[in-house]
Write a structure and sequence with these properties.
It is built from 4 helices and no strands.
Length: 83
């Protein structure tokens, strides 16, 4: 949904944007099945927060405190899902 809104605004009213549209998402590769590779593939809270802070401030040295870059493996070990 958000990507479509961004596309429409970029095409029809680009002057309404203060900066170019930035797309964040998965890497352009098949989804891995190993936990170590998944940690590299899926965006985590650290990488997402860093990207949003860089986008909001327009600087790579944004100074926003970032959450720990913890492995998702620990999350999977504790997860007791519905299955």
């Amino acid at each position: 949904m958000c990507a479509e809104v961004c596309r429409l605004v970029s095409e029809r009213r680009p002057q309404a944007l203060r900066a170019p549209v930035v797309t964040m998402g998965m890497a352009p590769a098949p989804c891995p099945t190993g936990k170590t590779l998944e940690d590299l593939y899926y965006p985590n809270l650290h990488r997402l927060t860093d990207a949003l802070a860089r986008l909001a401030t327009g600087r790579d040295d944004h100074g926003v405190p970032l959450p720990d870059d913890a492995s998702q493996t620990d999350v999977y070990r504790r997860f007791r899902g519905p299955f």
